[in-house]
Amino acid sequence: MILAGALIHEVAVAVKVGRSTISEWIHKDGFFKTKLEELRSQAEDELRFSAPMTNAFMMAQLRNLAESGPPESRLKAVQFYFEKFGIKDSTTTSGLSAGDALILKAMQKCEMPES
Fold first, then answer.
1. What is the mean pLDDT of residues 29-52?
2. DSSP-assigned states of every residue in 66-94
């Protein structure tokens, strides 16, 4: 629960002890602190390992949608991409990768009125 971001009082209620007990475990109990740090490190390692794969998959899906989705979805996908990566000027492909330039072209093909 602690690693998931639960508050001390939420953990205390769940394990039926006082808040001060949880606080003591976190700050003073060597075994608890060590185990908590091990679990935190393990969770961070798992995230570092899985995040790039998830990111690559999501970017591929976003590109597919921008290239071949229905016009309204293409536009939303491209707008999301440009907002996410801070690309403000959508009139030029200079400085963009080939994939990004393809997304820009897809955006330019589906000019839709603002909603």
1. 84
2. HHHS-HHHHHHHHHHHHHHTT----S--T
